[in-house]
Specification:
The complex is a heterotrimer of chains A (229), B (225) and C (265). Chain A has 229 residues and is of the alpha/beta class. Chain A is built from 7 helices and 10 strands. Chain A is 31% helix and 25% strand. In chain A, helix 2 packs across helix 3, helix 2 runs parallel beside helix 4 and helix 3 crosses helix 4. Chain B has one domain. The chains are: A alpha/beta (229), B mainly alpha (225), C mainly alpha (265). Chains in contact: A-B, A-C, B-C. At the B-C interface, helix 6, helix 7, helix 8 and helix 9 of B face helix 5 and helix 6 of C.
């Protein structure tokens, strides 16, 4: 299991964003996280990325026990949230290069990622001057420039133009072949369900269908049906 | 170890490149510092012989105030677009990020000090001498101020009241730097460089202490604060 | 809930409080009426009975803050209790530093002929006050208890390490241009009379007890606040878990309601 979580509780301020989550993910899976806003999808992804501490329960990601160490596994994953993690005054190329080098990725990772997302023509433009759609592409390129084994994507389609969406979907489809595992939270269920190998529903800080082969069957039946189709 | 220095250089170069593009320190903090020096001269009666006597103190107060702004800018760079989370997700050690950010602030402040000091010599009519002591003082004092500023900047990074909190934290801690740098400058400018060196040693100890503290604590602060 | 009885406020025994009260009353009586006049300073020296204990307490309190901060930072001893102790002690330290400065100032007026002198110990103390005012401001910054504890532990240690540097540089600076002829910077009072000595010791003891008393009460308050917040949090976790189990269909509507919260979850 590349991800294994049991009864994880995460607290934001005074609010239990995750109230006891269980989740198993095997290498090469593409897991869709669905569920209403405020259910805990973003917190789950941030917890797996090691950005949010675990209050109780256990979590192991990429072989690291997050309760003891939520840092050393980070260089092997990429997390995409609402922010681009980029600097306004640096150009697209500079931002990509910095992200790749800061992640100790290979020498040409930055230029490869720029090419993959069609950012070549924008290389010399400052982040501040990019349109919203271009920023989303850059955020994706930053994530891929890190050469991750695990991709944690929070609403990656939001704000992306039609061409960018297709580009992203193709990359996600080919991820398992490259040994990458994907966990993607999305509201665009129709689109993402065609890519995902499994769907996990997040409701009220708990996961339905997080564990394969056990758990509350009543809650799982419909989400499993969706994942199979 | 090599990786640590490489990462520090990466962060430092990144911050300096951003400064070259945005010109916040050069176009906003430097004029602020120059203005403070001029206002001092106004209020203290420019004709009197007081100015040359107290010039070292005025100069270092100006530098300390300017450095608060420079440190604030250094922190603000990491708040936009969630850049802090980007740094946390990187493979870099917290200590190397700290060294990189301090390095950039030190470089910016040294440029600022050279320009402000030339201004002070001209405006307050002072003959410069004791160059070696002046340079050593500036280096040691600046590293101390930048290291303290970076630690407290990280401590207060999450706060909405960051802008008001950081000066309250940094200024008292830097009181020995202000005192030491002023005394060292006074001695050097009076042609008694020998008396400057004990102060410079004090500044060096201060800088080493807070560089070490920041290097050790920065990762935890980046994660939790 | 069963936890309420366990976490119920421990009524601290009134003995300590009474002892503090008695000690301070005795110090006042001894200091004002029983200890004899000083041959040089007359009655003004009596401020010493307050000044010295306040100074001792300020340093004691900041020392405790530093030790508690260190204990919090060491992983093996990390516990929020150390943060409460550091915070409580820091507050008391600031209070007594301010008191020490105020009393020193009142004392300086008749003896030195002025309220303030740029003397090493006075200047160091003033900077000390601001150092820890910043520390207290940092503690009020918000965030989770763990965040606050870590931030203030680092700040508490930095401030403490700074104290000797400040003291050293300031006294060095003061010896450079000492206008010793104007005033007796050491404020020498010859405490030879046994009742003077006794009063001073009594004052130190009474103030130390006062410190312990204030510290315990403040920590109890902080622990209670934290316990209350913890119980609220546990209730919220229970609510979320129950909400899903009980109503499968109502679960979605509840979640939609919580989506109105401004924070992205």
């Amino acid at each position: 299991m590349i991800v294994s979580v049991r009864s994880a509780v995460c607290v934001l301020g005074r609010f239990p964003a995750l109230a006891g989550a269980d989740l198993d993910i095997a290498v090469g899976e593409i897991v869709l996280l669905s569920g209403p806003n405020g259910a805990g999808k973003t917190t789950l992804l941030r917890m797996l990325a090691g950005l949010v501490p675990i209050r109780s329960g256990t979590a192991s990601v990429l072989g690291s026990n997050l309760v003891a160490d939520r840092r050393s596994h980070r260089r092997r994953l990429s997390f995409i949230g609402h922010d681009t993690f980029c600097y306004d005054d640096l150009t697209v190329a500079e931002n990509l290069r910095f992200a790749a080098r800061a992640a100790h990725a290979s020498r040409d990772a930055a230029s490869n990622a720029a090419e993959q997302f069609g950012l070549g023509p924008l290389a010399g433009i400052a982040h501040a001057k990019l349109s919203a759609g271009q920023r989303r592409r850059l955020a994706l390129a930053v994530a891929f420039a890190r050469e991750p084994e695990l991709l944690l994507l929070d609403e990656p389609h939001a704000g992306l133009d039609a061409e960018g969406r297709d580009l992203l979907d193709n990359l996600l489809r080919s991820a398992p072949r490259l040994g990458q595992t994907v966990l993607v939270a999305s509201h665009e269920l129709d689109r993402t369900r065609t890519i995902a190998t499994r769907e996990v529903r997040v409701v009220q800080g708990l996961l339905e269908g997080g564990l394969v082969g056990s758990g509350s069957t009543a809650a799982r039946s419909d989400s499993e049906a969706a994942a199979i189709s | 170890m090599m990786q640590l220095l490489r990462d520090a250089r990466l962060v430092c170069a990144k911050d300096l490149r951003i400064e070259i593009r945005a010109r916040i320190v050069i176009a906003q903090v430097l004029p602020f510092g120059a203005l403070v020096l001029i206002l001092f001269a106004f209020t203290l009666d420019a004709d009197s012989s007081v100015l040359p006597t107290i010039a070292p103190g005025l100069f270092w107060i100006t530098v300390l105030l300017s450095s608060i702004l420079a440190v604030g800018r250094s922190m603000a760079i990491e708040t936009d677009n969630g850049a802090r989370d980007g740094l946390r997700l990187s493979a870099m050690d917290g200590g190397s990020i700290f060294l990189g950010k301090v390095g950039a602030v030190v470089a910016e402040l040294l440029v600022l000090e050279v320009l402000l000091l030339s201004g002070t010599f001209a405006l307050y009519d002072i003959a410069a001498r004791g160059w070696l002591a002046l340079i050593a003082t500036s280096l040691a004092a600046t590293i101390g101020i930048a290291a303290t500023g970076a630690v407290y900047g990280a401590l207060a990074a999450g706060a909405k009241v960051r802008e008001t909190l950081v000066p309250l934290l940094v200024l008292p801690v830097c009181a020995p730097v202000l005192l030491g740098a002023t005394k060292a400058f006074e001695s050097a400018l009076h042609g008694r460089s020998g008396e400057a060196w004990p102060w410079i040693q004090l500044l060096g100890v201060f800088a080493a202490l807070y560089l070490t503290a920041g290097f050790v604590a920065y990762e935890a602060l980046l994660e939790e604060a | 809930m069963s936890t309420t009885t366990k976490n119920a406020p421990r009524r601290s025994s009134p003995v300590l409080g009474l002892l503090v009260f008695a000690g301070i009353v005795a110090t006042v009586v001894m200091g004002l009426f029983i200890a004899p006049k000083d041959t040089v300073q007359g009655d003004a020296y009596r401020l010493l009975f307050m000044h010295v204990p306040a100074a001792w307490l300020a340093y004691l309190a900041f020392g405790v803050t530093a030790i508690a901060s260190l204990l919090y930072l060491v992983p093996r001893t990390r516990h929020l209790r150390w943060d409460y102790l550091a915070g409580a002690s820091g507050e008391i330290g600031v209070m007594f530093t301010a008191l020490m400065l105020a009393v020193g100032s009142l004392w300086g007026r008749p003896i030195w002929g002025r309220w303030w002198a740029w003397e090493a110990r006075l200047t160091t103390t003033a900077i000390l006050l601001f150092l820890y005012l910043g520390y207290l401001a940092l503690r009020r910054m918000g965030g989770s208890p763990e965040q606050r504890a870590l931030r203030s532990a680092v700040a508490g240690l930095i401030a403490f390490v700074d104290v000797p540097i400040v003291h050293f540089s300031v006294s060095w600076w003061a010896t450079l241009h000492q206008d010793g002829s104007v005033f007796n910077s050491k404020m020498q009072v010859h405490i030879k009379d046994p009742s003077m000595q006794f009063t001073l010791l009594l004052g130190v003891a009474a103030f130390t007890l006062l410190y312990v008393y204030l510290c315990i009460r403040r920590m109890q308050l902080l622990e209670l606040e934290e316990g209350m917040a913890d119980r609220e949090l546990q209730a919220a976790i229970d609510d979320r878990q129950l909400g899903v189990v009980s109503g499968a269909s109502s679960g979605a509507s509840q979640a939609d309601a919580s989506a109105n919260s401004p924070v992205t979850i």
